[in-house]
């Protein structure tokens, strides 16, 4: 995801709206440890998030990238930041028992006089309790506000350039699902099929190279599918079992996650009933998902469709998606569920997740979509029905 | 990584040694949020670590799995724990602005009377500053010790069953590197090659299915390779550029990371000199890496070999590997570097990382190896030399 994917104007607009949110929350200096937020603000890309790193956005001036010395060249190559704005922490402090990289961050913050009214992402994989302890001990816990999701919220409405990326990711998702349908055969060990689908997502299509997705393929079969986050194994595809694949194409870090269910043989009545409920849920949601409608209103389309079919769906039915790094392709802001009264805006993008998990099987048929004035519009074109093959 | 990969005796031994470390650190109840540690203690497997979850190990009794309601069936399927030991937090609290899953954990801990002398993994991706705040506010910060790495250290010496897994991962790594050498061709867009290599790792070999690795392929070329964590792009392989691939086979979550460098054309003298230094470094390290030698002593083999070639290596030169989940395949305990005086023990496993990054290129030739009485023994069999192909 080179910074060159987006214009200077776009980066300026991202920073401007982030600063408005900072001002509203009384934050002078925001420490952004979420790799997706770092990339969105600066273009930074690399698998370096397993050590402490951050983008620091002060009330004025360009953002600052801060990371391990060894990753500074990567920051120079991938971000649009001037060289003076790339700060590092000593290589020898990598995973060291007596030093913590955030000690170096404290020094940098003091050097710049950025020690008051800080904001941090308290609930993020890449801002540990230990990082917070170092920062609080040095600069005072009262001085540090919780800014979890502050940048994530700014990412909710996608720019035209971002939608283009997501539609490219959608073409990759469609290519992966076509590969999946073609390779789905009775008796085939599932890991072989996963290998093909993953390769399709990375090799991509002409002029459309793929990136790694933020979540590995979730691909459970039969009773495994009663659990919702089982990845895969080498068990052969078996007659009378439903398998679902939750996968995403990824283009320059933008995602378009889509699940489909496949079946060896003819699905029994209860699974067909679930399928019908899911398909109506998607159609109803797309019809309702216009700007101004709330998250809970569109979620109701899903719950009601399941209720009509005699099923109870006990979990949320969607979340925002876009630019992401592992371990999550969601944006962790709003959710499509009861109680979330956030109004939808044009060009927000969601993964609609009308899955159903019973003790004996799971069915997931999902869509990534964008909010438009005429309703939800899918970001990829993939047949929705359960794909069946003969069981003998 | 089903729990059935290991015997009950092995799980009992793992828990027993973890409890000894808990006692030494005055911890009655250990909250283990690192997915690798959770899997090592219970067999739990699933891509669910993007929401709060933990294994709770009290001074007595079986461990307890705690996670999202939707993931409880996955815990029932993958762990060896009795059903009563699978606790959950309410599905509706997933990524919710007004609730934090750790509130439910506090209730569970109170129910069991496990509210004193707690230990938590302060510096882990999957124990956020917000999680710690909830726990501290409820149970008192003074009551909670930092147990970062406590379980990781117990994992350092591998059992015979684990070494078998790692050798299988090593066979997958060798298969991936053979695929890489075969597919490395002038003008080939790199993402196509990455797709093939990834597919080889997952499709695996007869009776050897692959899993997803904890780190995506790092595969920079030319100047990109001066940065150490660039993944890949669609640029064609170009004459007179070094490319290195840092990749790992993964078998039931066990890893064997190995890097190799490839070159289109004849590498220039400075790269050949680096290669020679790396090859000597590996040979010297393997000769020295016997039980009783310290981490810094074996690291010296690498630094001295580079110094003899006129290069300065400015970063650590290895770390322990084994069972892992994203975003890191290292164990984050000891490091092969100056100042680390940890003595090596038989059946410890490391990724030896004698890479060299200059402003213009990078060379990485690395090995995963096990400590034996006769020295370091590689876990995979892959030609070490720079693989060259004609540039025209």
TrEMBL record, chains A, B:
Protein keywords: Hydrolase
Peptidase M24 domain boundaries: 166-372
Tagged with keyword Hydrolase: yes
Highest taxon above the source species: Bacteria
Listed GO MF terms: hydrolase activity
Creatinase N-terminal domain residues: 14-157
This protein's name: Ectoine hydrolase
The organism of origin for this protein: Shimia abyssi
């Amino acid at each position: 995801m080179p910074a060159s994917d987006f214009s200077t104007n776009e980066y300026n607009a991202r920073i401007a709206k982030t600063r408005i949110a900072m001002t509203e929350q009384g934050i002078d200096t925001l420490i952004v440890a979420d790799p997706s937020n770092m990339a969105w603000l600066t273009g930074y890309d690399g698998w370096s998030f397993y050590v402490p790193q951050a983008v620091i956005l002060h009330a004025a001036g360009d953002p600052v990238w801060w990371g391990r010395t060894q990753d500074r060249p990567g920051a120079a190559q991938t971000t649009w930041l001037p060289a003076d704005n790339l700060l590092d922490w000593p290589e020898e402090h990598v995973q060291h028992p007596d030093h913590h990289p955030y000690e170096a961050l404290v020094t940098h913050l003091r050097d710049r006089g950025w020690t008051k009214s800080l904001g941090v992402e308290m609930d993020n994989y890449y801002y540990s309790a230990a990082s917070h302890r170092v920062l609080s001990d040095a600069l005072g816990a009262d001085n540090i506000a919780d800014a979890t999701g502050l940048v994530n919220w700014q990412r909710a409405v996608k720019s035209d350039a971002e939608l283009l990326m997501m539609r490219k990711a959608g073409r990759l998702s469609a290519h992966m699902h076509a590969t999946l349908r073609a390779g789905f055969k009775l008796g085939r060990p599932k890991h072989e099929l996963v290998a093909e689908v993953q390769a399709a997502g990375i090799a991509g299509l002409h002029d459309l190279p793929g990136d790694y997705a933020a979540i590995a393929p979730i691909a459970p079969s039969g009773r495994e599918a009663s659990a919702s986050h089982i990845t895969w194994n080498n068990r052969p595809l078996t007659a009378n079992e439903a398998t679902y694949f939750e996968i995403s194409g990824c283009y320059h870090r933008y995602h378009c996650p889509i699940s489909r269910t496949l079946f060896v043989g003819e699905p029994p009545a209860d699974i067909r009933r679930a399928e019908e409920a899911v398909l109506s849920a998607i159609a109803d949601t797309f019809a309702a998902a216009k700007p101004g409608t709330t998250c809970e209103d569109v979620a109701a389309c899903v719950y009601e469709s399941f209720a009509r079919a005699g099923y109870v769906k006990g979990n949320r039915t969607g979340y925002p998606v876009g630019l992401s790094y592992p371990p999550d392709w969601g944006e962790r802001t709003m959710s499509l569920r009861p109680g979330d009264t956030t109004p939808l805006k044009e060009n927000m993008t969601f993964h609609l997740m009308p899955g159903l998990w019973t003790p004996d099987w799971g069915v997931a048929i999902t869509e990534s979509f964008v909010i438009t004035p005429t309703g939800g519009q899918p970001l990829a074109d993939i047949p929705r029905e359960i794909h069946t093959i003969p069981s003998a």
